[in-house]
From TrEMBL:
Residues 56-119 form the Pre-C2HC domain. The lineage of its organism: Eukaryota, Metazoa, Ecdysozoa, Arthropoda, Chelicerata. This is Pre-C2HC domain-containing protein. Coiled coil: none annotated. InterPro entries: Pre_C2HC_dom, Znf_CCHC_sf. GO terms for molecular function: nucleic acid binding; zinc ion binding. It comes from Araneus ventricosus (Orbweaver spider).
Length: 170
């Protein structure tokens, strides 16, 4: 197990910020691999009403000292309906590990579980590459639908294609 003194961590963080600034200044292409200490905790909140406003959940958890980075309600795409489950990213600060002990959110008795992601390969929605997320990708965008130099979400083709245009792996 690695241990860092506070001074070492501060130097490491300053170096990391400087390196990222240089890469951005030079408009270099790179993929950022976040340290596990920077990655948020992903949780699933179950047994809420599907009509619950996500902002109410954020306000309730914020009042208890949690910092919510992102929240999204799960949906069944085949039936086109919202599910009574919410995916949250909680910032690793203070009492973040206590989130699993919370039993009531927005006056509902809830169940909180660690998010289990699918075992399929992750695809970047920016460059269409594999095994990294768009928020950490600073490569040139590449559309998986038409092969153009834009992110797939910005493509003029809105429907699903039977055979998308794939690109060579980098």
């Amino acid at each position: 197990m690695l241990s860092f003194h506070r001074e070492t961590f501060i130097v490491f963080e300053e170096s990391r910020v400087q390196i990222l600034a240089i890469l951005n200044e030079k408009k270099a292409e790179y993929i950022l691999n976040e340290s596990s200490s920077y990655r948020p905790i992903k949780i699933m909140i179950k047994q809420l009403s599907e009509d619950t406003d996500p902002q109410d959940i954020v306000e309730d958890l914020s009042s208890r000292g949690y910092v919510v980075n992102r929240i999204s309600q799960m949906r069944n795409y085949k039936l086109k309906m919202l599910l009574p489950m919410f995916l949250l990213e909680i910032k690793k600060t203070g009492n973040c590990k206590n989130i699993y002990n919370e039993r009531n959110i927005c006056y509902f008795r809830t169940k909180i579980e660690t998010y289990r992601r699918k075992t399929k390969a992750m695809i970047c929605y920016n460059c269409s590459g594999f095994y990294h997320a768009a928020r950490n990708c600073h490569l040139k965008p590449k559309c998986i639908k038409c092969g153009g130099e834009h992110a797939t979400r910005d493509c003029k083709i809105k429907g699903k294609l039977p055979v998308p245009k794939m690109r060579k792996l980098r």
